[in-house]
Design the sequence.
């Protein structure tokens, strides 16, 4: 399979990654199923998000991430998007497979939507674990965001590890009706920071296709897969609209 192309396929992660060339990926991003224990549904598609146990989910994830690591360049990076259910387990897996010195950041994507509980603090963030292949070589361009202090008002500053990017509400123009869709602004920031111009971004669970769209809009190549045919149709449609 050529890595000079941008393409999407209806395939399972483990099947698709076996077709990629060794050391061909500049940035790997995945927003895998979170093991919520229920079916995720939207107007444009749905998928089952449930494993028998958290250990079963970790086994599924470990097998796939281990097969993916050899396909990432020495200058490349991995960004794993998870939440409170598995973030602690994923970090242990990555420390074991890559080494603790490959850890770069624990990013917090903070948002306002979602419910609350009388029995705990409201859960209002996701976790994005940022690892590299080689600590001395990995590509990174610090993203700049608007400053909020009075002293720097109207200027830009380097983004912190807490990303304040609104999640998509039901009236958002970019919403396509696919469950768990992430905002373009989030992926554009991550790709701009972690993938060089014309670099190759790989997403094996692309869902609504946001990663691929963000890569295309920012001048990067992309490849990815999803085992849900509905997701592939949605992603292809969004990519075609850019053309």
Sequence:
């Amino acid at each position: 399979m050529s890595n000079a192309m941008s393409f999407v396929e209806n395939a399972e992660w483990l099947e698709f990654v076996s077709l990629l060339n060794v050391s061909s990926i500049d940035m790997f991003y995945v927003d895998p199923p979170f093991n919520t224990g229920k079916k995720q549904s939207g107007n444009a598609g749905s998928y089952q998000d449930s494993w028998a146990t958290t250990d079963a989910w970790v086994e599924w994830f470990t097998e796939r991430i281990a097969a993916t690591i050899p396909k990432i360049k020495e200058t490349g990076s991995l960004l794993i998007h998870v939440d409170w259910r598995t973030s602690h387990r994923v970090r242990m897996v990555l420390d074991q497979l890559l080494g603790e010195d490959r850890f770069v950041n624990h990013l917090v994507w903070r948002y306002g939507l979602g419910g609350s509980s009388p029995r705990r603090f409201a859960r209002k963030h996701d976790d994005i674990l940022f690892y590299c292949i080689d600590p001395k070589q990995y590509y990174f361009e610090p993203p700049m965001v608007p400053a909020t202090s009075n002293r720097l008002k109207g200027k830009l500053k380097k983004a912190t590890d807490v990303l304040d990017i609104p999640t998509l509400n039901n009236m958002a123009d970019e919403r396509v009706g696919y469950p768990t869709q992430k905002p373009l602004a989030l992926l554009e920031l991550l790709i701009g920071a972690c993938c060089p111009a014309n670099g190759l971004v790989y997403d094996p669970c692309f869902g609504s296709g946001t990663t691929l769209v963000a890569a295309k809009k920012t001048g990067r190549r992309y490849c990815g897969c999803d085992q849900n045919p509905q997701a592939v149709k949605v992603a292809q449609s969004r990519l075609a609209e850019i053309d």
